[in-house]
Amino acid sequence: MNETNETYRLYFHLTPPAGWLNDPNGLCEYRGRYHVFFQYAPESPLGGRKFWGHYVSPDLIRWKFLGTALCPDTKWDRDGVYSGSAFTEDGFLELFYTGNVKEKGDFDYISAGRGANVLYTKSSSGETFKEKNLLLSNEDYPASYTCHVRDPKVWKENGQYYMILGGRRKNDQGAVMIYSSPDKKTWSLCREMSTREPFGYMWECPDLFEMAGTRFLLCCPQGLEAQQERYQNLYQSGYFVCDDFTLEDQKDYVCHPANFRELDYGFDFYAPQTFTDQQGRRILIGWAGMSEEADYGNDPIIKEGWQHSLTVPRLLSFSDGILRQYPVPELEQLRSRKLSLDSDFIEAPAFDLCLTFGGSDQSVRLNDDLILTCQKGLVTLTFLNGTGCGRTSRCARLKQPDGHMENLRILKDTSLLEIYINDGELVFTTKYFPKNTNRTAVTVTGTVLDAQFWELRRMEVETDENEKKYSAGNR
Ligand code: FRU
User: Fold this and answer.
1) For residues 278 and 287, what is the distance between their CA atoms, to the nearest angstrom?
2) Does 85 sit in the ligand 1 pocket, CB within 6 Å?
3) What's residue 464's pLDDT?
């Protein structure tokens, strides 16, 4: 692929060098470098058998692609190295992930025909992973589960190791299971977490962590019915605040649907994962994509030979009962030229726009392509033409009744937008394929108290494999 033909290749989001990317996996900081693995189907932008791709970075803005860290090459993961997490201890970078196996035959692959293995591998360099060990397989899960069990996330607490797994029960109820282990080798079930009545048929990519004294369960329920202002995507990503949860309690934990809050209201967000870095920050990275979505697509980038990206790393904080997400400050180092809202249009493929508002109703329009409005506490993002490739409209409500948009940050990449409202109370991530990625007319209405506006330069992404170096200015 000739690089210069890649109009929509992103400047400051991680993409697959070629082919398909989905979930972020194995996020960690290990020996002074951040590691971001991801679900990778290198052979086709439309997906295929899953490998783990691998990026490393000293600072979250200069990245190196190390190729594929894990391949589907054993009997336990031959049909896909599915999602999982990293754990670092005793000088090793350890990975726990799902090995997907599909038996040949006439199966539905839900109740039969699928092996959902939890596998383990480790590395002392953080780059090469050799031996794979089988930790859990279908017979180890409770009989109430189908063979959709996956996405282990492992952590240590009070001297014990814990693993959370997402699953689909036989009664089509999404749930998670928590296992514990004294040594990371033998695992036994401690307790399950679910709702009283089914809240979706499957919960994927779970994450359970404590922050500021509060316990959160992040998960991705599939099968929720769309409501006017909630659950507008095919699959959802969000969290339950689990105030009274303890790991010692053996009883199943009941989550309440009324307490479920979505993490992102855009068209393109799924399967987020979090980790704590050496500074003690809880950072979230999501997949800026959505699988199996029939109503909108990504043809312009598929034509370029690649599809999807990750979101920028987002710092998590908890205030007023809301888990807020905000781009990590490191990204500010990509700010270059100052831009002005007074120009008829700005010429920059990527930009960072920070607005502080007074008053009540506001809107921001990019070209005649899309508009974001806030009216009486309802924030709506609407595509006005075909630059959304079938994407139409999404909305979300501020927690404060009749709340206002007090501040707004738009990170615009060539073909991706991340929109943060009120310090990350609401976030919208969406792909966007403007006719001209270099030129945007930005029109703002409402009382703007302050505007900070920068062009963003390209992150450095070095690829080991072909020794190509993509960096600012050389394309
Ligand atoms: C979420 C997911 C995971 C699974 C992976 C396979 O997008 O379906 O549950 O492990 O993708 O690529």
Assistant:
1) 23
2) no
3) 66
Q: Which amino acid is at 113?
A: G
Q: What is the pTM of this model?
A: 0.96
What atom in ligand 1 is closest to the CA of residue 39? 12
Tokens of 121: 């591998």
The confidence band for 473, taking pLDDT boundaries of 50, 70 and 90, is very low
Question: Containing H/E element for 295?
Answer: none
Q: Are 116 and 139 in contact (CB under 8 A)?
A: no
**CA–CA gap between residue 252 and residue 117 (Å, rounded):** 23
% of the chain exceeding 90 in pLDDT:
93
pLDDT in tens, 254-282: 999 999 999 999 999 999 999 999 999 99
Confidence of residue 470 (pLDDT cuts 50, 70, 90): very low
Which protein residue has the closest C-alpha to ligand 1 atom 1? 271
Going from the Cα of 405 to the center of ligand 1, the distance in angstroms, rounded, reads 34
Residue 134 in tokens: 């089988």
- Ligand 1 atom closest to the CA of 23, numbered from 1: 7
Q: Are 141 and 161 in contact (CB under 8 A)?
A: no
* Alpha carbons 301 and 7: distance in angstroms, whole number: 8
Q: By the 8 A CB rule, do 162 and 154 touch?
A: yes
